[in-house]
Specification:
With 167 residues, this protein is mainly beta. It is built from two helices and eleven strands. A four-stranded antiparallel β-sheet has the order 4-11-9-6, with no helix packed on it. The protein has a four-stranded antiparallel β-sheet with strand order 8-7-5-10, with no helix packed on it. It folds into two domains: 57 residues, no CATH class; 79 residues, RNA polymerase II/Efflux pump adaptor protein, barrel-sandwich hybrid domain (OB fold (Dihydrolipoamide Acetyltransferase, E2P), Beta Barrel), CATH 2.40.50.
Length: 167
């Protein structure tokens, strides 16, 4: 059976492709993915079934695997001024499922910190997926307001990584 990381990468690849349905069978297991509008449905079931079992549908970008779930922190309700200010901020999001790295190597300093000035082409971090290191660019000119994830943390597709105050 495929590992959770491999299934997530398959989901990402199907999501980014033009195919509508994907089926994978291996060693008595079957994984079937089907796109519906803007979501991906995933089901895993044994190939040989004695009784019909309900299909399991998951959406990893919304619900992380239990082993990788982060503890939920209490969030305070932001004031109206803070909410207004935050709505003006640009979110740099992860383009894939992977591991977030703030620097190019453990010895190097982070690409950016809160308060760092960035340009559209500025590399702000690396997201590693299946041994491929993908440099993530700022996408806007501005100033980093907040780094939302920790170095080495697993990130989901579409998860906000940084908040940027655009110029």
């Amino acid at each position: 059976m495929l590992k959770v990381e491999e299934i997530r990468e398959l989901i990402k690849l199907v999501d980014d492709s033009t195919i509508d349905e994907f089926v994978y069978e291996h060693e008595g297991s079957k994984i079937k993915m089907k796109k519906k509008a803007s979501e991906i449905m995933v089901s895993a079931e044994p190939v040989k079934q004695v009784m019909q079992q309900p299909q399991i549908h998951t959406q990893p970008a919304v619900q992380p695997a239990a082993a990788e779930a982060q503890p939920v922190q209490d969030l305070e309700q932001p004031s109206a001024a803070a909410a207004s200010e935050q709505s003006n901020l640009h979110k740099i999001v992860s383009p894939m499922v992977g591991t977030f790295y703030q620097s190019s190597s453990p010895e190097a300093g982070p690409y950016v910190n809160a308060g760092s000035k960035v340009y559209k082409e500025t590399i702000v971090c690396i997201v590693e997926a299946m041994k491929l290191f993908n440099e993530i660019e700022a996408e806007v000119n501005g100033e980093i307001v907040e780094v939302l994830v920790k170095d080495g943390q697993l990130v989901e597709y579409g998860q906000p990584l940084f908040l940027v105050k655009p110029e």
